[in-house]
Amino acid sequence: MKKVISSIFNPIAMKICDLHQDIAYSAQKMNVVTGDGQSSVAMLSKFDSAIIISAIFPFFTSMRRGIGGSLEKEPKFEHVNIPDWNVLNDQLLFYSELERSGYTTIVRRKSDLDGNGVKLLLGMEGTDTLRDPEDVFFLYRMGLRSLGLAWNLDSKFAASYLSEKDYGLTGSGRRLVSYCNELGIALDLSHSSRNTILDIMEVNHGPIFISHGNSDSVYHHPRNYTDDILDMVTSKGGIIGITGIRSTLGYGQDMYAMIKHIDYVGDTFGWDHVAVGSDFLGVDTTVSGFESVLKFQDLAKNLGNKSEKVIWKNGHDFLLGIFP
Predict the structure, then answer these.
(1) Are 191 and 148 a contacting pair, CB within 8 Å?
(2) Considering only CA atoms, which of 176, 242, 248 is closest in space to residue 210?
(3) pTM, rounded to two decimals
(4) Of 51, 113, 178, 298, which is most buried, counting CB atoms within 10 Å of its CB?
């Protein structure tokens, strides 16, 4: 039986599908159950229905000496994210506890997307913690239904957009793609390098998408995607989750900058292929006008008659399509 969290938030008569939030990662440092920050289960529960691709981001933060400098100079230390299998298991347990408490549904099959309430489809961001490709079978049994092969680090499976040498998919990475196709796990190209994306396109036979990324034609940034990549993804039935990462938006860095990316992808590649991947709880600073999930209402007003497709239908329909 589903429970409703008592909160100060008023009911919102709309449905949202957000392709990327870092709920479990932020649970390590803030209240994402009843809190009033960028997002929380309580805030999401105020919508008629909220489907979220909720990330497993299995890293802990520490400090390491940065690149550069010398022993003669004062060492430069910086915060870094370090992958850890125990953190992965802790985040899986957190999502399980949310479901066991009756606050959310973990989406494991098509029927779990039906009805109202908060639905979390688990997606892992980066494969840095995996010991070998076969680990994905365990993760599937634990609820994983989306996998991004790269984050910001080099891994033994795939290069990221920050890799100094873009080596694309490794042999183990190709095997991992094959296993995801076998299981029905959607492949998320966010953070992947160009060659990784091209290699995935060559060997993949399952659903693909970009959960949180923007257009390089609107604003040039190494984290954004060129037209040929966006065309490859959308021509295969994939969708693009326009994101609120400030540095990738361009001038303004506000909700209207997000809308420029939404309009460009919709007008260029089709309005069935653009959605929102907010990256709420994964960004330190949000964009002006889109500071929390409650601001989906304002985004909808500014999108006009395209709002239902962008904010709900496209994401919902894509996720329906990953299940048999």
Answers:
(1) yes
(2) 242
(3) 0.94
(4) 51
38 secondary structure, DSSP code: S
Confidence bin at 168 (pLDDT 50/70/90): very high
Closest by alpha carbon to 2, among 91, 128, 93, 118?
A: 118
The label of the residue with tokens 């034609």 reads 217
Angle at 84 between CA 123 and CA 145, to 5 degrees: 15
15: tokens are 């449905």
CB 15 within 8 A of CB 48: yes
Name the helix (H) or strand (E) containing 101. Answer: none
Centre a 10 Å sphere on the Cβ of residue 44 and count the other Cβ atoms it contains: 30
State which CATH number among 3.90.950.10, 2.30.110.10, 3.30.470.20, 3.20.20.140 fits the domain covering 12-321: 3.20.20.140
Residue 69: per-residue pLDDT? 45
How far is residue 27's CA from residue 58's CA, in Å, rounded to a whole number?
A: 12
Q: Could you count the other beta carbons within 10 Å of the beta carbon of residue 243?
A: 28
| Rounded-to-integer distance, Cα 288 and Cα 290, Å | 6
Alpha-carbon distance 168 to 200, whole Å? 9
Going by C-alpha positions, the residue among 232, 236, 306 that lies closest to residue 275 is 306
Instruction: Let me know the angle formed at the C-alpha of 216 by 211 and 218, rounded to the nearest 5 degrees.
Output: 105
The domain limits of the chain are 12-321
State the chain's maximal CA–CA distance in angstroms.
63
Distance CA 219, CA 209 (A): 20
